[in-house]
Amino acid sequence: MSQGGGTPSAGNPTILHAGKVFIQRDYSDGTSVKFHTRLPPELEGMIERHVFEATINRLNEFYAEAEEGSCGTYCEGCIGCITAYLIYMCSETHYEKTLRKISKFVASQNERIYNPKGLQLIDPTFRGLRVIEITIFDRPGRT
Fold it and tell me: How does it sit in the membrane (predicted)?
């Protein structure tokens, strides 16, 4: 494991830095937005493995949905091109709508699961979709 914000090795996709754990992108299936689902050792005992994996898997599903090409997304692109992209001043793209759903999902996960355990899941869009940041709060009685 790399400490202090270094680059993780291929076998360990997390970095711990000053009460923060970073879940790295998983490039095993290409460059689409997907994150590693393994529970970092720093979070063991703080959150159940299946809960953590369910959260990351759901985020990965949202990003796959956002990047999915469909007739609607292609038409959306064509209409954008025809209107010199002025249409986007009036409406959101499929990708933007999905990012909004992701933000709501992260907020609900924090409220229901992570915050009560002294953790805070940070929306990956705030980190440029490079990592998922999990902040570990100091709680009285924990060493």
Answer: Peripheral membrane protein
